[in-house]
Specification:
By secondary structure, this protein is of the alpha/beta class. It has eight helices and ten strands. The strands form two sheets. Strands 1, 2, 3, 4 and 5 form a five-stranded mixed sheet that branches. Strands 8-7-6-9-10 form a five-stranded mixed sheet.
């Protein structure tokens, strides 16, 4: 009886269990080790396959493999490196301008990338959902700040340019955000630019009545004019779709809503309702305590007389 703990590689071929752990479609694990820095290094490759030249279509000849090291998302409490043994082919057509080429798979990594596609997604989620900094992300990945930022910046820029995120917004929220307390000089002059921002959030409920809040945009400035300009830029179709507009107790935002979203119902968001109620309660308690002090002081004066 065969030993059930043996990997497939021991019997020839690839190990399905190792492939399942690494979870990279189309690639198979051939080796795994811990390096001197404590990083998990996993070597992967694709199966041999017939390949045509991407330029002329002629059947290409295999020409070995090139090893590329990529930063992957951390796992098991350690930074991870993927060593991708990429297949190389040579086009036999002497007139073809390509000559030789290597395999590409953008589901694994973009051409000439330093981070895997999965690592880029992980880094962005850490920044968006877990309030991590780029410096905190790079520590977990075991790489440099510039490597992380240069990898995710194009993805974030493409997301910012994607106008489809404004579709289907029926409940729109707005609030100010102060993101730093240092120099407001322009970034190119060594500062951090404007410190006050206006943020717009999609609060539209799904078919089950649940809200999945999405940040739609952040623009410099905190004023009614800032919000009004943003609403104007979105266009008539967007403004007509907004049925409810939530805001904090700031007349500037309210004026912008009245001007640009005249058909929408304005409501104070739940956070500020609770905050205002709490502040009113505190003021009431302070007035009551002051009244007690005045009464007590008057009593002391009467007894002294």
């Amino acid at each position: 009886m065969d030993d059930p703990t043996l990997c497939c590689l021991a019997r020839g071929g690839y190990c399905n269990r190792c492939d399942l752990i690494i979870g990279v479609d189309g690639l198979h694990v051939t080796a795994a080790e811990r390096d001197a820095r404590g990083r998990l290094v996993v070597t992967v490759e694709s199966e041999p396959a017939v390949m045509g030249c991407p330029s002329c279509g002629v059947l290409a000849r295999g020409h070995g493999r090139d090893e590329v090291e990529l930063v992957d998302a951390p796992v098991f409490g350690a930074p991870v490196r993927i060593r991708w043994r990429k297949r190389r082919w040579v086009c036999p057509d002497l007139g073809c301008p390509v000559g030789s080429f290597t395999e590409q798979d953008e589901s694994v990594a973009a051409p000439r990338a330093k981070l895997t596609t999965r690592a880029c997604r992980w880094a962005i989620e850490q920044i968006r959902r877990e309030h991590a900094s780029v410096n905190g992300v790079r520590r977990q990945l075991g790489t440099s700040w510039s490597t992380v930022w240069s990898s995710i910046k194009p993805i974030l820029a493409a997301a910012a340019d994607d106008e489809s995120r404004f579709e289907g917004v029926s409940i729109l929220g707005v609030d100010e955000h102060v993101w730093h307390h240092v120099s407001t000089k322009p970034v190119q002059d060594g500062g951090r630019g404007p410190k006050e921002l206006t943020g717009m959030v999609d609060l539209t409920r799904d078919e089950h009545g649940k809200v999945h809040a999405r940040l739609l945009d952040l623009v410099p400035g905190r004023s009614g004019e800032t919000y009004r300009a943003w609403l104007t830029e979105r266009g008539e179709a967007f403004r007509a779709g907004v049925e409810i507009a939530t805001l904090d107790p700031f007349h500037g935002y309210k004026n912008a809503i009245d001007d640009q979203l005249e058909d929408a119902r304005s409501v104070l968001d739940a956070f500020h309702v609770v905050k205002v109620r709490h502040e009113a309660l505190c003021v009431r308690m302070e007035v009551r305590d002051l009244h007690r002090l005045v009464v007590a002081a008057a009593g002391l004066k009467l007894r002294a007389a």
